[in-house]
Amino acid sequence: MHNQTTIAQKISYTGIGLHSGQNVTMTLNPATAETGIVFVRTDLPDRPGVKASASYVTNAQRATTLEGGAARVFTVEHLLAAFSALEVDNCLVELDAAEPPVGDGSSLTFVNLLQQAGRLELAAPRRVIAVDREYSIRVEDKFIALLPYDGLRISFTSVNPHPELGVQFGDYEINPDTFIREIAPARTIGFMHEIKSLQEQGLALGGSMDNALVYENGKPLNPLRFSDELVRHKILDVIGDLSLAGIVRGHVIAVKSGHALNTALAKKILEASRPSTLKL
Predict the structure, then answer these.
(1) Among 250, 240, 245, which residue's Cα sits nearest to residue 274?
(2) Is 193 a catalytic residue?
(3) What is the pLDDT, as a whole number, of residue 29?
(4) What pLDDT shows up at residue 216?
(5) Contact status, residue 214 vs residue 192, Cβ threshold 8 Å
(6) Which of 13, 53, 213, 221 is deepest in the core (most CB within 10 A)?
(7) How much is the pLDDT for 204?
(8) Which residues make Cβ contacts (< 8 Å) with residue 220, sequence separation at least 6?
(9) What is the DSSP string of 77-104?
(10) φ, ψ (nearest 5 deg) of residue 48
């Protein structure tokens, strides 16, 4: 698809926020070219909005937070991954709370919504960032880099102290079919020993085995969808976070990266690159 897209019709979904534990209704609305993905807080006076851009990232602890003026939204990465991988460029996302619904903890809920809504091509070219040099972020033993590449490829190494998880490696060429089949079903991961601490910090208040893959003593308490579901979800997060730079083409190589490094890389690319209009 050479031109920008939006969804063909409005569609809504109601669920619970992963970290807030609040019920929320999300409505996806068609938008005009050059709008981008914009989150609109319908529960606040004057319905303030914030664009899905690395420029507006204010927190990346356990989830990605965007904030612009009175508009603040968090845990946006699973939804953004679906928009990015399914090549939906423009959408107004109305929320009546600060956090989108978590669905089942993966991107499947959002994939299904976008497929039901359909996709509409707009009369404006897509603007693609095709990198021509290396971009990288390193913090201690964690790093993420983006190298020139014809397409979008993600190679991720996850290292976890639990012996049942250990080292997991995933390497995927990202396109709509691969994303839907191999990445979108991978759920967010939780550990029983962390739950009390997270909830004391106001996190994971809506988490359950219905919307997360939960481990205890290194063993999954609910059935795995993939033997390497952890690293696949890490790749899902990269897709969502990296989309905050725009439509990026390159080879991502990451080791133990999380939202903080992912969004720092997106910001670095956004600040240094000038998008060019390319055919896809």
Answers:
(1) 245
(2) no
(3) 98
(4) 84
(5) yes
(6) 213
(7) 65
(8) 213, 214
(9) HHHHHHHHHTT--BEEEEESSSS---TT
(10) -70, 155
Domain ranges of the chain: 3-126, 128-277
Backbone dihedral region for residue 267 (phi beyond 0: left; psi -120 to 50: alpha; all else: beta): alpha
User: In this structure, are residues 81 and 107 in contact, taking their beta carbons and an 8 Å threshold?
Assistant: yes
Q: Tell me the whole-structure pTM to 2 decimals.
A: 0.93
Residue 252's DSSP bridge partners are 146, 154
Same fold yes or no, 3-126 and 128-277: no
Which phi and psi (to 5°) does residue 25 adopt?
-105, 130
Catalytic pick from 78, 233, 251, 259? 259
- Contact between residue 166 and residue 215 where contact means Cβ atoms under 8 Å apart: no
Q: What is the CATH number of domain 128-277?
A: 3.30.1700.10
**107 backbone dihedrals φ, ψ, rounded to 5°:** -100, 5
CB of 110 closer than 8 Å to CB of 37: no
242 burial via Cβ count (<10 Å: 0-12, 13-18, 19+): buried
The residues, ordered by sequence, that sit 6+ positions from 74 with a Cβ below 8 Å of its Cβ are 19, 59, 63, 64, 65, 66, 98, 99
Rounded Cα gap, residues 111 and 162, in angstroms: 31
Closest CA to 242 of 158, 176, 146, 141: 146
Predicted pLDDT at 169: 98
CA contacts within 13 A on the Cβ side of 81: 33
pLDDT means per 10 residues in the chain (280 residues)? 92 91 95 98 98 97 94 97 98 97 96 98 95 95 97 96 87 98 94 72 72 85 94 98 97 97 97 54
